[in-house]
Design a protein that fits this description.
Rossmann fold, 20% strand
């Protein structure tokens, strides 16, 4: 499964990346919404971990909402409270990266099952 990590803090991104590697996930880490969109256009992920604050000043929440609307499982990770309007996974910092990724994997599998035609 492919994971996009959109996180401005290098340490947090590295922690998530290390957990992703341990779980056998393919991943790319970026620090801006602009770069995230470039990566998504080239190779859409199955799931994403997004921080609401990214380095280019654009809202990671906007990026997360776009990803979620396109059927990609998303987890917001933040040291701030969860936005009221957010309907996806949310993890408050500090968090265990493995917990975030396991929840995302489950959500991605559930999303795929919705897309499979049933008899």
């Amino acid at each position: 499964m492919k994971l996009l990590i959109a996180e401005r803090q290098a340490y947090t991104a590295a922690e998530i990346a290390a957990a992703a590697a341990r779980l056998g996930l393919t991943f790319i880490a970026v620090h801006s919404a602009t770069r995230a969109r470039e990566m998504i256009a080239r190779r859409p992920p199955d799931m994403a971990v997004v921080s609401p604050k990214l380095l280019d000043g654009e809202s990671g929440y906007t990026l997360a909402t776009e990803l979620q609307a396109s059927g990609i499982a998303v987890a917001l990770v933040s040291g701030s409270p969860c936005p009221q309007e957010w309907t996806g996974l949310f993890f408050s910092k500090p968090f265990a990266a493995t917990d975030v990724l396991r929840a995302l994997i489950a959500a991605a599998h559930a999303q795929r099952e919705k897309e499979v035609p049933r008899c």
